[in-house]
Amino acid sequence: MLGKSTSAILVTGATGFIGRHVVQRLLLAERRVVILSRHRGGLTGVQRLAEVLGDLSRRSLDVVEGDLAHPDLIAGKLARVGATIDTVIHCAGDPSFLVGERESVRRAQVMGPVALLKMLRPGGLRCWVHVSTAFVCGRREGTIYESETDLGQQFHNGYERLKLELEIRLKQTCGELGVDLRILRPSIVVGGAPSTPGGVPSNLFLMLLRLLIALSRSAGARHTPVRIQGRPDARFNIVPVEYVAAAIERLSYEPEAAGETIHVVAKYPPTQQRLLEMMSARLDLHNLHLVNSTETLRNRSPLEARVARMLSPYRDYLQQDVHFDDSVARRLLARHPVAAPMIDGKALERFVKLAGLSEKKSVPGPRPWSNDSLDLRSAYVGRAKFR
Length: 387
Ligand SMILES: NC(=O)c1ccc[n+]([C@@H]2O[C@H](COP(=O)([O-])OP(=O)(O)OC[C@H]3O[C@@H](n4cnc5c(N)ncnc54)[C@H](OP(=O)(O)O)[C@@H]3O)[C@@H](O)[C@H]2O)c1
Fold this sequence. Notes:
The chain has 387 residues and is an alpha/beta fold. Helices cover 37% and strands 15% of the residues. Strand 2, helix 2 and strand 3 (61-65) form a beta-alpha-beta unit.
C-alpha cells in the first residue's frame, strides 16, 4: 500500500505484452507502482496481476480496478491513491486491427485515456508517458521523423487512425493542463508474448520461425522450396520487447525527454531479404524464397498456402518500406545507457531459442501443420528438439 506522501507511477495495460515488462522493470527498480486493471474472466484485477507478475506482485504495488471504457466508474476508486500519482505510463490499448472505429471503441481507446488524464491532474499528475505506435505514419513510405504527426496520411486500418487521434487529443489536453507529455512509438514488438491482441505479431513471427525450424529438422523436407510473399528490399521493423520496456522506463524520468515524441525501434533493421538469408543460413534451409508479389502464388504448395495464411493479417505491412528515424531516442537513451538493438545474427539466435521455448498455447490461429502434406507436427510440438 502507498503512503499519501509517496509519489507513484500509474501503469495501464499491465496485463498486456508491453505493460507487464514495463511493470517488472519498475518494480525491480523499486519504483512505487499503481496499476489500473480490468476485472475479466471471473478474475479480479489483483488476481490477474498475480498471475502475470508472480512473486513481483507482492512488491510495492496498488491495484485499482477499472475499465477505460467507463472512466466515470474509475474516479471513485482512484480517490485513495490519486493524489500520489505523479506519472502515468499508458500501455493500455487494443492493438487488434479488427477493432474498427465504432463509437464504443473510440470511447475506450481515445476518450477513456483523456478522461483519466483530466481526472488525475488535480491530484498533481505531472507527466503522461504515452505508448503509441510508429505506424501512426499509416501507409507512408521512406523516412519518418519523430516530429511528424498528422500529414494527411492514409491508414492501413482503424487502429492506426485511432492511435493518431489519441496522440493529437493528448497533446491538446496535456497542453491545456500543463502536463508533460512524452509519446513513445514502438514499431512491431517481438519477444516472449502472451496470447493478447498485442502479442499476435510476435507470436506469428515465432510461429513462422517454428515452422521453419521444423522444416529444417525434417530430413525429407529441408530442401522443399518455400516461397514467401513480401517485398525483399523493404525493411523489417521489429523491435525486442526488452528494449521497448527499458526505453519506456528510462524515458519516463529522463528530464530531457519532456515533451518529446520518440521512435522506439531497432537500429538499422534488416531488409526482409537479409532476414530471410540469416534464417536460411542459421537453419541450413536453402530453398526459401521471398517473392515480391501481392497476387496469390501459382501452384502453391500446402505449406506455402499455410505460410501465406499466417502472414495474411500483415500482408500490407510486408509491402511497405519505412525507415523510422530515431535520432531523438538515441540521443536520450545514450545518457542511460540503453543501446538500440540490432536485428542481427545474435538477435536471430535469441528468437530461434524463444520459438523453441514459447508455449504452444500462446500461438494464435490455426496450427501450421494441419492439412499440410508435410508431416512437421512432431518436430513442431517437441520442445526438446529445438534445443
Ligand atoms: N504489440 C506491439 O507490437 C505494439 C507495437 C507498437 C505499439 N503498441 C502499443 O502498445 C500498447 C500496448 O500493446 P500490447 O502489445 O501490450 O497490447 P496487449 O498485449 O493486447 O495489451 C493491452 C493491454 O491494454 C489493456 N486494455 C485494453 N483495453 C482496455 C480498457 N478498455 N481498459 C483498461 N485496460 C484496457 C488490456 O487489459 P486486459 O488484460 O484487461 O485486456 C491489456 O493489459 C498499445 O497501445 C499498442 O497500440 C504495441
